[in-house]
Write a structure and sequence with these properties.
CATH topology: Glycerol-3-phosphate (1)-acyltransferase
Order of helices and strands: HHEEHEEHEHHEHHEHEH
Strand content: 5-15%
CATH class: Alpha Beta
Radius of gyration: 20 Å
Strand order of the largest sheet: 1-8-7-2-6-3
Largest sheet: 6 strands, mixed
Structural class: alpha/beta
CATH architecture: 3-Layer(aba) Sandwich
Number of domains: 1
Shape: globular
Length: 303
């Protein structure tokens, strides 16, 4: 509606509306979360957890409102029609920008249960937002390198324990466990450092989804494979606030949950880990080809 305004004014207005939306909903989240903390009983969780999800969904709906108000975005979305907010999902997606999170929330809000992201441990100190993520029980991960773990073996397995503990809580009410398989935002520099075999992606990591499947695999009804493409180039969050993102393409593909049967000499954990890594490698090869196709089709549509 207000996209005719100059970009700096759009950026200021969008930032203010985003901040006001945060200041409206985060205090409510914290009050309800403190009640749950003081009354740590399953019966209380069964009441409080759905309430927290409704509050978070209202917060996301507020974000969608200011996005519609300030942005002239052409949304091209498919694959969301048959989704259900009453089913558990494991969600994976390519990752290019912080804008991805707003896109995912806008497209999937109230179509599936609230997305629970795996976050870096340091993000808990982000003002206001860190408290909100804590209140919503997002798992905070340390993500140590293999070299660090070799020097500090006592840290090995802590992320796995964190993930399992979080996923056990998610088993009480329908939840969507979200994992960016690349582990970080994809950039040309990171692709070069990794020697990535993909044109548009970093190498995928299967550790997060393996842990989620070990903790609550029987709960997940499906995997949602989400592909996000920005035809005009990878945006920064500032570009988005200024209204400089004009088109977003989102494809959601519903897939069966991967599983594995141990072979001779394997235990169940090893079999699942190897099956998940093979699964994500194949998925990423298909996604890379899909992104190439999406960009080509968009280019052909552009007058």
């Amino acid at each position: 509606m207000l996209h005719f305004l100059p970009a700096p004014l759009i950026g200021i207005l969008a930032s203010l509306l985003m901040l006001l939306n945060i200041l409206l909903w985060v205090p409510i989240l914290l009050v309800v979360s403190i009640i749950k903390l003081l009354l740590p009983f399953k019966a209380v969780r069964l009441i409080i957890d759905p309430l927290l999800l409704r509050i978070a969904e209202a917060w996301i709906a507020g974000n969608s409102f200011w996005m519609r108000l300030t942005q002239k975005l052409d949304w091209d979305v498919s694959g969301v029609q048959a989704l259900s907010p009453r089913q558990w999902y494991l969600v994976v997606c390519n990752h290019q920008s912080w804008v991805d999170i707003l896109v995912l929330q806008h497209v999937l809000n109230r179509r599936i249960p609230l997305l629970k992201f795996f976050l870096k441990k340091e993000l808990i100190w982000v003002p206001i937002m860190g408290l909100a993520w804590w209140a919503l029980e997002f798992p905070f991960m340390r993500r140590h390198s293999e070299a660090y773990l070799q020097q500090h073996p006592e840290e090995r397995g802590k992320d796995a324990a964190t993930t399992r503990k979080a996923c056990e809580k998610y088993a009480l009410v329908p939840t969507s466990v979200m994992n960016f398989l690349e582990g970080t935002r994809c950039t040309p520099a990171k692709q070069q450092r990794q020697q990535s075999p993909y044109r548009h992606l970093l190498k995928p990591k299967a550790g997060g989804i393996t842990l989620a499947l070990q903790a609550m695999g029987e709960k997940f009804g499906a995997v949602l494979d989400v592909t996000i493409v920005y035809p005009d180039g990878r945006p920064t969050f500032t570009h988005f606030l200024l209204g400089q993102v004009k088109r977003v393409i989102v494809r959601v593909n519903t897939l069966p949950v991967p599983c594995a049967e141990p072979t001779a000499g394997q235990n169940a954990e090893q079999a699942l880990r190897e099956a998940c890594q093979g699964w994500v490698n194949q998925l990423w090869a298909e996604k890379d080809a899909l992104i190439t196709q999406m960009l080509s089709e968009n280019k052909n549509k552009t007058p």
